C-alpha cells in the first residue's frame, strides 16, 4: 500500500455519524419502503410493463401510479427506483454473526501505518500457486463474511491455482505473532489455512473493463470464530446501504506494495474518502463501482480483493462495515489521486443469493 503518509488521525466511534449527502448513491427507497437501486427501465423487470402501458397510452392502476414517487427519487439519472430483493435465507446467514461481526480492538488510528495485531480479524489472504516462493503466493486479500464464505475481487481468482485461504494472519515473516502488554506476552493463534471448496465469480465479470469485479469463495469447512478470526459486517439494511454510499472517511487495508516497492509482511491501512465517479473518469452513473481519493494514500498491487471499511453503529453497537472491495487503480500506486473499488452495497442481492444457494 503506497503512500500511507499521514499525521495522527483518530476516529472516535462513540460520536454519532451525521448524514452526508450521498456520492453517486444508487441506493434508493421504493414507493413501498423497500431497498431499491436506481435502474434504467430496461434493467428493472417490474417497470417494463408499466413503461409499455405508458407508451401505448393505457391508464395505469392505482398501484402502478405509486411508481411515480420512485421515478422522482432517481430523476436526475433518468432512471427508476427498482426493488433490489435480498435472499431472505442469505440475510439470515449473515445475521447469525450480528453479535460478533465487525468488532475491533483498536478504536483509533494513530502514529503509524501498520494495522495492530489482531485488530482486523476478518482479513483473509488468498494462497495461490504453491510453486512460487512463500511470500509471492499471497497476492490478494479478502474478507471473511460467514464461517464458510470469503468475499474478494473476481480478478484475484485463478480457479486452477487458488488452493487455500489464510485467516488469522498478521506478520507473514514470522511463525508466531506476539505483543507485550504490561510485560505479559499476548500471541495470536497459528494462522489457519482453509482449503478452497468452490469459487463463485459474478457472471457479469469483465476483466478488461473491471466490471462486476466480485467473487465469493466457499471454504472446505466452516471455521470456528475466535478473538483473531471473525467476520466483518456487510450493509444489509437500508440505512447501512445509504450510509456506505456517502463520503464519510473509510479505511482500506491490505498486505500490498509499500513505499519500498515490495509486498508488505504486515497489513497496512490508510483513510480515504469516496468521491464522485465523474472525478475518476467513470462516466456511467449506473456503474457498480465506487471511487475513492486519499491524496497520497492509496491501495496498491497486493491489496486487491481486500476491504474498504468504515466505522459506524451496527444494531446500536460500534462496528466496521465493508463498503468496497479493492479493484483497480493506476499502475504507479499513489500517483493517480483516485482508485476504484467494487461497491458492496450494489451486490448485496447477489451475495445473499449466492451464499443461500450454496451454503
Compact overview of the structure:
The chain is α+β, with helices and mostly antiparallel strands and 359 residues long.
Written account of the structure:
With 359 residues, this protein is an alpha+beta fold. 13% of the residues lie in helices and 29% in strands. Strands 4-5-6-11-10-7 form a six-stranded antiparallel barrel.
SSE string, helix = H, strand = E? EEHHHEHEEEEEEEEHEEEEEEH
Distance between the termini: 33 Å
**How much of the sequence is in beta strands?**
25-35%
Number of E-type strands: 17
In spatial order, strands of the major sheet run: 4-5-6-11-10-7
**Rounded to an integer, what's the Rg over CA atoms?**
21 Å
Largest β-sheet summary: 6 strands, antiparallel, barrel
Helix content estimate: 10-25%
The geometry reads as elongated
Would you tell me the structural class of the helices and strands? alpha+beta
- Count of individual helical segments: 6
Mean pLDDT: 80
Low-confidence stretches: 1-20, 106-112, 297-302
Q: How do the helices and strands line up, and which of them pair or pack?
A:
Layout (H helix, E strand, L loop, with lengths): L26 E3 L5 E5 L8 H8 L6 H4 L1 H7 L6 E4 L4 H8 L27 E6 L9 E7 L4 E4 L9 E6 L10 E4 L2 E4 L4 E10 L13 E5 L18 H7 L4 E6 L13 E8 L13 E5 L13 E8 L2 E12 L9 E6 L4 H11 L1
Antiparallel strand pairs: 1-2, 2-3, 4-5, 4-7, 5-6, 6-11, 7-10, 8-9, 10-11, 12-13, 12-15, 13-14, 14-17, 15-16, 16-17
Amino acid at each position: 500500500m503506497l503512500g500511507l503518509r499521514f499525521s495522527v488521525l483518530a476516529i472516535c466511534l462513540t460520536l454519532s455519524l451525521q448524514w452526508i449527502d450521498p456520492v453517486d448513491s444508487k441506493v434508493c427507497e421504493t414507493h413501498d419502503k423497500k431497498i431499491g437501486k436506481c435502474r434504467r427501465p430496461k434493467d428493472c423487470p417490474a417497470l417494463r410493463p408499466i413503461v409499455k402501458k405508458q407508451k401505448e397510452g393505457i391508464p395505469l392502476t392505482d398501484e402502478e401510479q405509486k411508481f411515480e414517487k420512485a421515478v422522482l427519487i432517481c430523476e436526475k439519472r433518468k432512471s427508476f427506483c427498482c426493488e433490489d430483493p435480498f435472499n431472505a435465507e442469505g440475510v439470515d446467514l449473515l445475521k447469525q454473526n450480528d453479535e460478533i461481526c465487525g468488532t475491533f480492538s483498536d478504536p483509533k488510528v494513530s502514529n503509524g501505518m501498520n494495522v495492530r495485531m489482531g485488530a482486523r480479524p476478518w482479513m483473509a489472504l488468498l494462497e495461490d500457486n504453491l510453486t512460487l516462493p512463500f511470500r509471492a503466493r499471497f497476492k490478494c486479500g479478502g474478507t471473511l463474511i460467514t464461517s464458510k464464505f470469503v468475499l474478494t475481487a473476481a480478478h484475484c481468482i485463478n480457479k486452477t491455482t487458488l488452493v487455500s485461504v489464510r485467516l488469522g494472519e498478521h506478520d507473514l515473516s514470522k511463525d508466531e505473532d506476539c505483543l507485550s502488554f504490561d510485560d505479559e506476552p499476548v500471541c495470536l493463534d497459528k494462522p489457519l489455512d482453509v482449503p478452497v471448496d468452490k469459487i463463485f465469480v459474478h457472471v457479469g465479470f469483465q476483466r478488461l473493463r473491471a466490471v462486476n469485479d466480485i467473487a465469493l469463495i466457499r471454504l472446505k469447512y466452516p471455521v470456528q470464530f475466535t478473538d483473531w478470526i471473525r467476520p466483518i459486517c456487510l450493509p444489509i439494511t437500508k440505512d447501512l446501504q445509504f450510509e456506505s454510499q456517502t463520503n464519510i472517511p473509510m479505511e482500506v487495508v491490505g498486505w500490498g506494495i509499500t513505499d519500498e516497492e515490495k509486498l508488505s509482511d504486515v497489513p497496512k491501512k490508510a483513510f480515504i474518502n469516496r468521491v464522485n465517479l465523474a472525478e475518476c473518469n467513470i462516466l456511467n452513473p449506473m456503474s457498480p463501482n465506487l471511487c475513492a481519493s486519499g491524496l497520497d494514500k492509496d491501495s496498491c498491487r497486493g491489496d486487491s480483493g481486500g476491504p474498504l471499511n468504515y466505522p459506524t453503529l451496527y444494531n446500536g453497537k460500534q462496528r466496521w462495515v465493508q463498503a468496497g472491495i479493492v479493484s483497480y487503480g493506476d499502475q504507479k500506486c499513489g500517483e493517480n489521486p483516485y482508485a476504484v473499488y467494487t461497491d458492496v452495497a450494489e451486490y448485496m442481492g447477489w451475495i445473499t443469493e449466492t451464499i443461500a444457494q450454496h451454503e
